[in-house]
Amino acid sequence: MSASTLTTQNFTWHIASGLAPSLRDSSQFEGLLLAARDVRRNAYAPYSNFLVGSAVLMDGNLYRGCNVENASYGATICAERSAIFAGIADGGRSIAALALTTGPQSGTPINQRTPCGICRQVIAEFAEADTPILIDAGEGASYAGEIVSLEQLLPWRFKL
Ligand SMILES: [Zn+2]
């Protein structure tokens, strides 16, 4: 698999091969990443200790969300849906880009840093095939992480 990179003000990103993600809002990518890292500190995850932060650009506005767990585990919500639903409640309908982070440490396997299946389907409800998903690689390095398209994350997705 060949790959390309994107350089923004302070970071370099890896662009996954396949259906290329849109880069038209790349000037917002660093802001989204830093917002996701910031809101992660508010995550409520006393049961898993797996803190996640997400930031989404919807109709020109940035919304943040973190995971919120519950003693009744099924009531838990992920950071991505938390952020998206905040945007929807504010009148947003179209996702231009979404960032998420699962922690400050680097070296975490990619499969522990990507959105879960439920969140992928929720992203698909409000996004296009080339909508970029920014996956944090960890803090403290100039390498920011991976940029993948929704199509890469959820091919053959359900849509009415
Ligand atoms: Zn999820």
What does this protein look like?
The chain starts with a strand and ends in a 7-residue tail after the last helix. Helix content is 23%, strand content 24%. 38% of the residues are buried. The protein is globular. The protein has a 7-stranded mixed sheet. The mean pLDDT is 95. It has helices at 29-40, 79-89, 117-126, 150-153; strands spanning 4-7, 12-15, 53-58, 61-66, 95-101, 132-136, 143-149. The chain has a single domain (4-153), classed as Cytidine Deaminase, domain 2, CATH 3.40.140.10. The chain is of the alpha/beta class and 160 residues long. The protein binds zinc ion. Zinc ion binds at residues 78, 80, 115-116, 118-119.
